[in-house]
Amino acid sequence: MMMILAQQFGIGRVLAPVAKEEFITLLDRIVLSAYSGEANTCCCGCAGEHRYQLGLEEIAGNSRGYSVDSEDVSDRAINTRVNKISRAIYELGFENLSLANIRRATEELEIKTIQVGDDHICFDSGTRWTIAYFLPKKYLPLIKN
Predict the structure, then answer these.
(1) What are the pLDDT digits (tens) for 107-119?
(2) C-alpha distances in angstroms, 45 versus 2, 51, 129?
(3) Quick check: helix, strand or coil at residue 87?
(4) φ/ψ of residue 116, rounded to 5
(5) Cα gap 44→66, rounded to integer Å
(6) DSSP state, residue 139
(7) HSE (side-chain half, CA atoms, 13 Å) at 5
(8) DSSP 3-state assignment of 1?
(9) Which of 27, 66, 93, 96 has its CA 20 to 30 A from that of 82?
(10) What is the rounded distance in angstroms from the CA atom of residue 114 to the CA atom of residue 112?
(11) What's the confidence (pLDDT) of residue 7?
C-alpha cells in the first residue's frame, strides 16, 4: 500500500501515515497551511507568511517541493487565519454552504471579499489576504484519526 502511495505522489520515498488527535478543518476540509500577507501581491512569502499545520510537515514539504522548517509550523496561526475566514463566510450568510456552493455564490453575486479556488479559499480584507490551503485529496489515505 505505501509503495503504491509513493508512486502515486511521484516521490522516491514513502511518506509515513499521519496520526493526530484532531486536525484543523474549514468547510469539512483539512487545512494544510494558511497564508497571511499583503493583498494584490504574490503569495510566495515575500509580502506575508505561510504557516503549516502540526503533523502535516512532511506532506506539506512533499507538496511544495522542499522541507518545512519547525518555525513555519503553527497551529495557533492556522487557527487565527481559519477563524478570520470563517467570520467572513458567516458575515456573508454562507456558513451552511459547501465550498462549491460558496464558490458559485461569490461568483454569481460578484463578491470579491471571498475567493474560492480548487485547493484554497481566500478572504480579501482590501489590504491583506488570508488564505487557507486545503490538504490535497491524494494525501487523505495517509491521514489516520
Answers:
(1) 999 999 999 999 9
(2) 32, 10, 12
(3) helix
(4) -115, 130
(5) 13
(6) G
(7) 16
(8) coil
(9) 66
(10) 6
(11) 45
- pTM for the model stands at 0.86
The domain locations on the chain are 20-144
Considering only CA atoms, which of 26, 44, 27 is closest in space to residue 35?
44
Asked if residue 5 has pLDDT above 60, the reply is no
- Which 3 state secondary structure label does DSSP give 102? helix
- CA atoms within a 13 Å half-sphere pointing along the CA-CB vector of 56: 28
User: What's the first-to-final CA gap in the chain, in angstroms?
Assistant: 18
Q: What is the radius of gyration, based on Cα positions, of the chain?
A: 16
Name the grid cell of 48. Answer: 506575508
d(CA 128, CA 139): 29
CA distance 61 to 50: 12
Place of cell 486545503: 134
Residue keyed to cell 489590504: 127
For residue 130, with 0-12 CB atoms within 10 Å meaning exposed, 13-18 middle and 19 or more buried, which class applies? buried
Give the cell for residue 19: 496520526
Beta bridge partners of 41: none
